[in-house]
Write a structure and sequence with these properties.
Helices cover 75% and strands 0% of the residues. The protein has 201 residues and is an all-alpha fold. The protein is globular and about 45 Å long. It starts with a helix and ends with a helix.
């Protein structure tokens, strides 16, 4: 009887453990869905501040996976080949929000690892170099952010992204050399710049 009771306790504990896992999975799925709905929904100027805060609070619940999903949703719904994309009122929130979050999250250690995965999941229908160049131009990203994004692609496992990232990295370093003032980079990124400079420049 003793062993039967022990097995029963263990089975109950395992059952509760699996139940907790399923609950977390369901909660995460609900958060992912909510992030996409908020990003894809209609936005007016009065809603922007509260909407940003709501999206970021959901992203923080998921950590890096939430960050990846947020960037994926934003990139999927913007057509950077359209010259009117930055001027279109319906896309203003997405453009501003994407630019702000790239400026912010590019300084985090995990960004350089997960950003190439986002582009791989997008199944790009155009050259990666052209696509990322259009992002830089449309969002008017700071040069240091452009260099970080380029470096992240250059360290990808995807051949096309490595090629695009390396070419962009070289191009942006040339622009940096002619820049009037020094740029700030996160400490963890300095080693990456030195490594890529040694093997590619």
């Amino acid at each position: 009887f003793f062993f039967q009771a022990e097995d029963g306790i263990r089975d109950a504990q395992e059952s509760r453990g699996l139940g907790d896992v399923y609950k977390r999975q369901n909660l995460n799925n609900a958060v992912f869905i909510q992030i996409r709905q908020l990003i894809n929904g209609h936005v007016n100027k009065k809603m922007m501040k509260n909407l940003k805060a709501e999206i970021l609070s959901l992203v923080n619940l998921l950590g890096p996976e939430g960050e990846k999903y947020m960037f994926t949703c934003l990139l999927e719904c913007l057509n950077f080949k359209d010259p009117k994309v930055t001027a279109a009122s319906k896309d203003q929130f997405k453009i501003q929000f994407l630019s702000q979050q790239l400026n912010h999250y590019s300084t985090t250690p995990q960004f350089i690892d997960y950003f190439p995965c986002i582009l791989e999941n997008l199944n790009l229908q155009q050259d990666a170099f052209d696509y990322v160049s259009e992002i830089f131009k449309s969002l008017k990203l700071q040069l240091n952010v452009q260099i970080i994004i380029s470096a992240s692609l250059a360290q990808s496992h995807n051949t096309a992204l490595i090629s695009a990232g390396t070419a962009l990295f070289k191009q942006k370093l040339q622009e940096y050399r002619s820049f009037d003032k020094p740029l700030e980079f996160p400490d963890h990124f300095i080693h990456t710049v030195l490594y890529l400079s040694l093997i590619h420049i």
